[in-house]
Amino acid sequence: MSVSILLVEDEEKLARFVELELCYEGYQVTKAFDGRSGLELAETGDYDLLLLDIMLPGLSGMEVLRRLRRSSSIPVIMLTARDSVEDKVSGLDSGADDYITKPFAIEELLARIRTALRKKSSETENTCLSALGLELDPERRAVSVIGTTVELTKREFDLLHFLLKNKGLVMSREALLEHVWDLDFDGGTNAVDVYIRYLRGKIDEVFDIKLIHTVRGVGYVIKDEE
Ligand code: CA
Fold first, then answer.
1. Distance of CA 80 from the midpoint of ligand 1 (Å)
2. Which of 11, 145, 156, 205 is the S-S candidate for 152 at Cβ 3.0 to 4.6 Å?
3. C-alpha 124 – ligand 1 centre gap (Å)
4. Angle between the N-to-C axes of helices 35-43 and 61-68, in degrees from 0 to 180, rounded to the nearest 10
């Protein structure tokens, strides 16, 4: 899936140039030329990253950022013509992830974009997941239920992690096999049932909760309610 970038910049020539370079790198680019329409687009939540000029007609970049941050954690790189310390400080205070001073080399901008996107994706990858008092910490590969540690094998952990990431969605045995087992695994979908049984033995039965639900003929789902 391609990465989608919203570019809010009133200098049309510069916007066009940046758009071409980003498209060349495989990004999808949407442009807005003033603060108000930029904010409206950003609030749809359809973008992976926002490039935001500070000096904009309508609503300043700083104001766009301030309003956007009430509801969105999208990575934002500010574009500023002024190399003033004040701008940088207030930009970062208002929740910008980075800033770049105009004129900039396109390579520099591309590097900043990659960094901001990487930072964002590692944050979401490492977010702790929870359901019914169970907590899973992907970074420490630790699982606990109301503070009590649960010891899981690697496969059990990966299976639980995948189900939790998709909490509320029914996962078919085939989907679980594909994402949790190696592609060349040919042990059949029975393996999934076996590992679900292991997990229930270590979690549902020990803590007397109904975490993993069977959906007959379809697969398994973790829900937040029993
Ligand atoms: Ca401007």
1. 8
2. 156
3. 32
4. 20
Reported as half-sphere exposure (CB side, CA atoms, 13 A), residue 126 has a value of 8
CA of 194 to the centre of ligand 1 (A): 60
Ligand 1 mean position, distance from CA 91 (Å)? 15
CA distance 197 to 47: 40
In the prediction, which pLDDT does 138 show? 85
9 alpha carbon – ligand 1 mean position (Å): 6
pTM of the model: 0.61
3-state SS of 119-187?
HHHHHHHCCCEEECCEEEECCCCEEEECCEEECCCHHHHHHHHHHHHCCCCCEEHHHHHHHHCCCCCCC
Q: Which of 41-45, 74-78, 93-97, 153-157 has the lowest mean pLDDT?
A: 93-97
139 or 52, which is more confident? 52
pLDDT-based confidence at residue 158 (cuts at 50, 70, 90)? very high
Write out the two tokens for 145.
């239920």
Structure token digits, residue 198:
């292991």
